[in-house]
């Protein structure tokens, strides 16, 4: 059950909409279900002699009785209350009880107070009502409605439990401000799929991902095509900023500005400066290669994977400040990936980044924690530009996405353990989008590795199977039956060709981090082996010897394979071997 409180200045205009057909004839049988005093509240839909104008006049009477200078400019209090999809339809009597409880909880009209504000509840659909009140009491005073939105939410949680409805996650006042009903209506009329507030929030977040300085952040905002205006001190230093979408104007033709703090609590300029103070450092080397040119997308993704692994390890520990900082960095890495990934995965990654944005904020402070490494990884991904989704780029993207799934799962568990219900749900939602993106990104490189594995001689495959059974007895039987076993065998074969001991490398991959949260143990092992062995993120199918009709024969290493096996980046040393920590 979701309440959504706003204020306005025209009682008649709001009632006219509530009793009207709706914008798409969606309103059915508008009628009152409750009122401050039913005998004084005429219902235009039930009483043929009553009019909307009469009802508005009755509601406005305590306001109009005051001198003009004491009348509030926005005297109309509006609170739609909607049940969740799948909930049963409440009766009029039940909705009346909901309305009375909410006006009591919010201070609009407490039980037994005969001098309270005037209010009504209108129902014009099965799944919601609209509560309308005027913000002057019968004695001329204003109601005590401090934090009325929070109190309405808390009362709805109690109502859900008592009425047998879906119990939604409780908020903690760290969420971004939701678009108003007026903003949503305007977006619908303009044919937009989201409101300007939501579009701006995403673009500001993307401009901040991996930014090294305030100047770079503002430059990225301008490059994104946003209107930008800074609030400057007499010294010329920026005190704040606001942004607007080109073409988004009010009735007077003026741009509709949104300060950063109105987009999200962590997008105010002071909060942004706190984030920028932690990194990337001036000596950041992840954004250029040895030639001084921006690195390849595959390079930065391979570099980012072990950094993301470390974030998952931190989230499994006890340092809350460090964990909160890593969550911010994970959000920036997702924003970077959403901007630079191939078209085939970009939509899912954008959805993952939008969902995880909620998981980056809680009341746990991270000001003194260091997330330089993960912010530098995000910066490198941005600087490297768009990945093509083919060859090494595709494999490196799949490698990183496999790790990011584990990171978001770790984030969900971290939030759940601390009672952050909304953040945990957001992290789980992000993980679902990442899984979908991973399946798309991994299809081509995994298929190439599977074909490679199927062409290996049976004695080679059997030797690697024995290694797996010796090092991972609890998962070996399941892994050998998975479709990914052929790809894992190909990876072990490539590692052996590159001069590694497959048994030792496999043991390192297994003990690097627990595997219980992995959707596919095989896939996780493949990408860990490729990072540990400094192997390319994809494979080139071996060619059978000339004249041979079978593809099972093990081909000798080619001149092109040797350098390929050592290409890529140096993986970070894996953490000390440890068992499952969750």
Q: Can you tell me about this structure?
A:
The strands form two sheets. Strands 1, 2, 3, 4, 5 and 6 form a six-stranded antiparallel beta sheet that branches. A three-stranded antiparallel beta sheet has the order 7-8-9. Helix 14 runs antiparallel to helix 15 (421-454) and helix 18 (485-497) runs parallel beside helix 20 (521-532). It contains 21 helices and nine strands. Mean pLDDT is 88; it is low at 285-289 and 547-582. A hairpin with a 5-residue loop joins strand 7 and strand 8. It has helices at 11-19, 52-64, 92-105, 148-163, 181-189, 196-208, 214-223, 260-263, 269-277, 297-315, 320-340, 343-356, 372-384, 391-417, 421-454, 458-471, 473-481, 485-497, 502-512, 521-532, 561-565, and strands at residues 2-3, 6-8, 31-35, 76-82, 117-125, 128-137, 227-232, 238-244, 258-259. It folds into three domains: 2-163; 194-273, no CATH class; 297-565, no CATH class. The protein is α+β, with helices and mostly antiparallel strands and 582 residues long. The two termini are 33 Å apart. Helices cover 50% and strands 9% of the residues. The radius of gyration is 30 Å and the shape is elongated.
């Amino acid at each position: 059950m979701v309440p959504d409180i706003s204020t306005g200045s025209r009682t008649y205009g709001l009632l006219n909409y509530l009793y009207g057909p709706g914008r798409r004839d969606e309103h059915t049988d508008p009628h009152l279900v409750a009122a401050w005093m039913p005998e004084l509240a005429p219902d235009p839909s039930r009483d043929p002699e009553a009019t909307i104008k009469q009802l508005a006049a009755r509601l406005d009477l305590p306001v109009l009785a005051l001198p003009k200078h004491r009348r509030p400019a926005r005297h109309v209090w509006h609170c739609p209350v909607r049940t969740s999809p799948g909930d049963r339809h409440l009766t009029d009597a039940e909705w009346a009880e909901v309305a009375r409880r909410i006006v009591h909880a919010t201070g609009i009209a407490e039980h037994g107070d005969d001098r309270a504000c005037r209010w009504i509840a209108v129902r014009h659909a099965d799944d919601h009502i609209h509560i309308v009140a005027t913000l002057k009491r019968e004695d001329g005073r204003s109601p005590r409605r401090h934090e009325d939105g929070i109190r309405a939410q808390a009362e709805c949680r109690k109502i859900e439990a008592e009425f047998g409805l879906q119990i939604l996650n409780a908020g903690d006042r760290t969420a971004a401000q939701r678009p108003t009903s007026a903003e949503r209506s305007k977006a619908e009329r303009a044919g937009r799929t989201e409101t300007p507030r939501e579009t701006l929030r995403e673009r500001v977040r993307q401009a901040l991902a991996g930014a090294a300085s305030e100047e770079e952040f503002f430059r990225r905002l301008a490059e994104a095509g946003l209107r930008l205006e800074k609030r400057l001190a007499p010294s010329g230093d920026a005190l704040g900023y606001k942004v607007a979408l080109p073409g988004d104007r009010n009735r007077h033709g003026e741009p509709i500005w949104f300060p950063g703090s109105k987009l999200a609590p962590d997008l105010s300029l002071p909060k942004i400066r706190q984030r920028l103070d932690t990194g990337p450092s001036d000596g950041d080397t992840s954004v250029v290669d040895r030639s001084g040119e921006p690195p390849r997308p595959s390079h930065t993704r391979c570099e980012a994977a072990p950094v993301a692994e470390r974030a998952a390890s931190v989230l499994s520990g006890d340092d809350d400040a460090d964990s909160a900082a890593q969550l911010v960095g994970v959000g920036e890495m997702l924003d970077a990936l959403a901007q630079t990934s191939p078209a085939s995965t970009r939509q899912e990654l954008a959805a993952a980044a939008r969902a995880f944005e909620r998981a980056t904020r809680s009341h746990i402070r991270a000001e003194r924690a260091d997330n330089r490494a993960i912010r530098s990884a995000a910066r490198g991904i941005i600087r490297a530009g768009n990945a093509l989704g083919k060859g090494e780029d595709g494999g490196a993207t799949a490698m990183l996405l496999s790790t990011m799934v584990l990171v978001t799962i770790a984030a969900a568990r971290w939030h759940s353990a601390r009672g952050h219900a909304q953040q945990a749900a957001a992290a789980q939602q992000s993980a679902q989008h990442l899984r979908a993106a991973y399946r798309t990104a991994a299809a081509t490189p995994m298929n190439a590795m599977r074909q490679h594995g199927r062409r290996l001689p049976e004695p080679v495959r059997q030797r690697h199977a024995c290694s797996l059974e010796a090092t991972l007895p609890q998962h070996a039987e399941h892994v050998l039956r998975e479709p990914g076993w052929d790809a894992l065998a190909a990876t072990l074969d490539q590692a052996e060709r590159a001069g590694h001991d497959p048994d030792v490398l496999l043991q390192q991959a297994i003990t690097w981090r627990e595997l219980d949260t992995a959707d596919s143990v095989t896939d996780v092992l493949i990408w860990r082996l490729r990072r540990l062995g400094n192997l390319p993120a994809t494979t080139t199918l071996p060619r059978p010897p000339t004249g041979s009709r079978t593809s099972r024969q093990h081909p000798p290493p080619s001149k092109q394979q040797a350098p390929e096996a050592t290409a890529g980046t140096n993986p970070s040393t894996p953490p000390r071997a440890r068992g499952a920590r969750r």
